[in-house]
Design a protein that fits this description.
With 404 residues, this protein is α+β, with helices and mostly antiparallel strands. It folds into 3 domains: 2-92, no CATH class; 102-180 and 313-403, 3-Layer(bba) Sandwich (FAD/NAD(P)-binding domain), CATH 3.50.50.60; 185-309, Guanine Nucleotide Dissociation Inhibitor, domain 2 (2-Layer Sandwich). It is 30% helix and 15% strand. The chain has helices spanning 2-19, 32-38, 47-52, 58-63, 84-92, 102-114, 156-163, 174-179, 210-218, 264-279, 299-303, 350-367, and strands at residues 125-131, 134-140, 143-146, 149-152, 185-193, 202-205, 229-232, 247-255, 291-297, 337-339, 402-403. The strands form 3 sheets. A 5-stranded antiparallel β-sheet has the order 6-7-8-5-9. The longest helix has 18 residues, at 2-19. Residues 393-401 have low confidence and may be disordered.
């Protein structure tokens, strides 16, 4: 274990600048950040094979690798870089935002409004407005909004296929998007119960046939016998999430993304019953008799909620879909368009998604010629005093307008 900690502490230190900086193309492979990361990378290895060097016991390897679910990938497929995920939890701990993750969004919105932003809720974007190869605004059901910069927080593949005509896209055409690899999906239960539970905030039950369960996911099969599940009992930490004497339970089951061979609408109730039974193995006895409200979300539901193929963790994190091979934070096909979220660099998972927002915001500021104080820190990105502005980054008629 000490060797694991030492290796991953070094791996994180040397790869951190790569995860906190934008990647613009092949030339970045010869940058200082890339050379540092290369010194600790094992591109031929997966998370599973890398851990096998250190831990002969399969149970320990499982405990150190289930975090690849944050990427929507199997540890037998995820690149060995991602052994840092478990290390981060052991090194820095796991935190809970009081009121749930939604409270983070609300607080960020409050700050944005305080800085002068206008937030239009319930205003779906129907189309990105183009002037040649430049995005100049968006069209909503309420009309057009012209702006200098557009930041897209939509699921990447769904955003491209629904907001930009296919004939306007080359690298990310419908045909090319269809050939990309995507993460798994999830079968979700959101339960309200009329009692509290003493179970820990986070629990994971790993199938006794763990590898077979993972294979089912990649081959579009449903695991009926002993599926792996994750259960969050957040009220044990934050009672404000439910009325007195009650609890909310969040249940996540990794499953295949959308495939025509699986009709979730016809099997979701039966699968729900299987999962409720599985929860007994984590100590939730007699759960069925205490459920007072519930909601089921299947991969098909995710797919109909603007998530391409219901792949909730976005594009898979294979080596051929990372760094500059992933859609860029400053989008390469259209000037004036920027990306945030799991579909761009550095990838999926909440901390990295927030990091994508930080990278993108710095690029927008650089392209608009704005030079803020970074709390007394000079560098924009590791090893870069200032990012190179976007080519021909002219400002349109309303120089203060940015749409996100």
């Amino acid at each position: 274990f000490k060797k694991y900690v030492t290796e991953n502490r070094r791996k994180l230190t040397r790869s951190k600048s790569s995860l906190q900086s934008p990647w613009n193309g092949v030339s970045d492979l010869f940058s200082r950040k890339a050379l540092e990361a290369a010194s600790v990378m094992r591109p031929w290895a997966t998370v599973a094979s890398d851990l096998k060097r250190l831990f002969p016991d399969e149970r320990i390897r499982l405990a150190m690798s289930f975090q690849t679910k944050y990427l929507g990938m199997s540890p037998f497929q995820a690149p060995s870089l991602f052994t840092i995920l478990a290390f981060l939890e052991y090194e820095h701990g796991i935190f809970h935002a009081k009121g749930g993750l939604g409270s983070i969004t609300e607080r960020m919105a409050d700050i944005a409004i305080g800085l002068g932003a206008e937030i239009q809720l319930s205003t779906p974007v129907e189309e990105l407005l183009l002037d040649g190869k430049r995005v100049v605004g968006v069209r909503t059901e309420k009309g057009e909004i012209r702006c200098d910069k557009v930041i897209m927080n939509a699921d990447f593949a769904n955003g491209m296929t629904s907001l930009v005509p296919n004939d306007k896209r080359r690298r990310w055409s419908d045909k090319k998007l269809a050939k990309k690899s995507y993460s798994c999906s999830t079968f979700m239960l959101y339960l309200g119960t009329d009692k509290t539970w003493e179970q820990p905030h986070h629990q994971i039950y790993a199938s006794s046939k763990y590898e077979s369960n993972l294979e089912d996911i990649t081959k579009h099969r449903v695991t009926w016998e002993d599926p792996s599940i994750y259960v969050q009992n957040a009220c044990i930490t934050d009672p404000s999430l439910a009325p007195d004497g009650c609890s909310t339970l969040y249940v996540l089951v990794p499953v295949s993304n959308v495939d025509e061979s699986i009709d979730w609408n016809s099997i979701k109730q039966d699968y729900r019953d299987v999962i409720i039974k599985q929860m007994e193995k984590l100590g939730f006895e007699d759960l069925e008799n205490h459920i007072v409200s519930e909601s089921i979300v299947t991969p098909d539901d995710w797919g109909s909620s603007d998530i391409y193929r219901g792949a909730v963790f976005n594009l898979a994190h294979s080596l051929d879909q990372m760094l500059f091979l992933r859609p860029g934070n400053r989008f390469d096909e259209f000037r004036g368009l920027y990306l945030v979220g799991g579909g761009t660099h550095p990838g999926s998972g909440l901390p990295t998604i927030f990091e994508s927002g930080r990278i993108t915001s710095k690029l927008v500021l650089a392209d608009m010629g704005i030079h803020p104080e970074w709390n007394g820190v000079d560098t924009w990105f590791p090893y870069a005093k200032h990012p190179v502005p976007e080519p021909s980054s002219q400002i349109l008629s309303n120089p203060s307008s940015t749409v996100s």
